[in-house]
Design brief:
Layout: E1 12-17, H1 20-30, E2 37-42, E3 53-55, H2 63-72, E4 77-80, H3 83-87, H4 90-95, E5 101-102, H5 110-113, H6 115-125, E6 132-135, H7 138-148, E7 153-156, E8 165-167, H8 171-182, E9 194-197, E10 204-212, E11 216-218, E12 223-224, E13 227-229, E14 233-236, E15 241-244, H9 251-271, E16 277-287, E17 290-297, H10 304-308, H11 316-325, E18 340-347, E19 362-363, E20 371-375, E21 378-380, E22 386-388, E23 392-400, H12 403-414, E24 417-418
Length: 435
């Protein structure tokens, strides 16, 4: 039998979403071999300025308009950034019309959309994860907590924009978190459900697998910084910075994660009849007994995505298309830079609580080969001026041969950016920096 012809690069790509992750994806795809144009819907104040990138004012929730845009612009590949449209079935809608999509269908997106579903799948697959208890009512959750007689991790079952997890230090804190979930803070109210989980201990690391339903390509491990305060203090955020490749996992450790976590998960999805074509994000705790899954996500992490994209080679668009078509075996190898990548987030005053918006952003920083400015919560007015519009506003990312140099370059770049109330941590990467 003759070998299949090599997969062609997608000429026209649509990125769905409007955050920093989507800005970074669009930037990397614009630089991919064979790509002629990238559209972003709805995009932000930064995507509009990317060379080769065009912005579409279509909300990620408007599946019908996104389908029409794909047909109008002859889109060869759709890359879905956020979890909400994946859970709502956007990939399914587009695939029904013959459009290649990097991003799982609604069935696979349950990995993130339902923690109960994901934990059950992990147990069935033999994937290492903390012990847990499901609860579908307030009384059931409180009874399970009292039966354990110790603080547990409390996780709202559905999508909660990264805010539905409480790592309780006391029984009172755990009870309060349960009450909060069933009071409807995350939208479900009396119909809410949750997972109570044993606490595990160790450093955290994120691993991303690009999957085509059968095979996968692993990206370098990354480490996020969730806390708002320096020294990893204060409330959790969506992420204040990241770096890659995280030395917590060497090549042997990454291979262990593949064998213990990712391959069994992909096999379990397949056993359930789920053809998972997209990224599996494994958030891991490296415990004394080995890697343990804290959570799965069905999309790239943010800000890990901003950290990783500058390390991707020119084959990225073709590899994502291969995943979308179930043809990784027919794709070129993805080249990945061996350099260190460092990312620092500039957030709005008040984040992660009540934030100020509408501050004009002044920047002298231009994205290039070694230093990038990715926009997250920004918008532009009719005159082209850029303003803050969200909690995490900008990501400054830099690459160098060492982490010391990469972070020095990133913080120097941050000094070229200003908006009123700009907040950032000065110790991102403290685990790998010598200064």
């Amino acid at each position: 039998m003759n070998a299949a012809a090599p997969l062609q690069s997608p000429a026209h790509v649509l990125v769905v979403g409007g955050g920093g992750r989507e800005n970074a994806l669009a930037w990397a795809l614009c630089r991919s071999a064979g790509v002629e144009a990238v559209w972003v819907a709805p995009g932000n104040g930064g995507t509009a300025e990317l060379s080769g990138c065009r912005q579409l004012p279509i909300p990620e929730s408007d599946h019908g308009a996104l389908l029409e845009a794909c047909q109008e612009h002859r889109i060869d590949l759709v890359v879905v950034g956020p979890e909400a449209p994946l859970a709502a079935g956007l990939s399914d809608r587009l695939r029904q019309q013959g459009i290649a999509v990097f991003g799982p269908g609604a069935d696979g997106a349950q990995l993130e959309a339902s923690k109960q579903w994901a934990k059950t799948l992990m147990v069935e697959a033999g994937v290492p994860t903390a012990g847990f208890w499901k609860a579908n009512s307030r009384a059931e959750a409180l009874a399970a907590l009292e039966a354990q007689g110790k603080p547990l991790v409390v996780k709202a079952d559905g999508l909660a924009a990264g805010k539905g997890v409480t790592v309780a230090e006391t029984m009172e804190e755990a009870r309060a978190a349960i009450e909060e979930i069933f009071a409807g803070r995350f939208g479900a109210g009396d119909g809410a459900s949750l997972v109570l989980e044993e606490r595990t201990h160790g450093p955290e690391v994120s691993v991303f697998a690009l999957c085509d339903g059968e095979q996968m390509v692993l990206l370098p491990p990354a480490q996020d910084h969730k806390r708002i305060g320096e020294g990893d203090t204060g409330p959790n955020t969506g992420g204040m910075g990241a770096y890659a490749p995280a030395p917590l996992l060497d090549q042997a450790g990454l291979e262990q994660v593949r064998q213990l976590v990712l391959e069994p998960t992909l096999a379990a999805l397949k056993q359930r009849g789920i053809n998972y074509r997209g990224v599996i994000y494994a958030g891991l705790m490296l415990t004394e007994s080995g890697p343990s899954v804290i959570e799965f996500n069905c999309r790239f992490g943010d800000p890990e995505c901003e950290t990783l994209m500058p390390l991707m080679g020119p084959e990225l668009a073709t590899v994502l298309l291969a995943c979308a078509r179930g043809q990784l075996h027919n794709a070129p190898s993805l080249t990945i830079s061996g350099r260190c990548s460092a990312c620092v987030i500039a957030a709005a005053q008040g984040y992660p609580g009540e934030i100020r918006k509408g501050d004009r952003i002044d920047s002298q920083l231009n994205s290039g080969d070694d230093l990038q400015l990715f926009h997250a919560g920004t918008r532009r007015d009719e005159q082209g001026h850029c303003f803050s519009s969200g909690g995490r506003v900008l990501a400054v990312v830099a690459q160098a041969e060492t982490f010391d140099d990469a972070f020095a370059r990133a913080y120097a770049g941050l000094g070229q950016v200003h908006f009123e109330g700009m907040t950032y941590r000065r110790d991102i990467g403290h685990q790998v920096r010598s200064n």
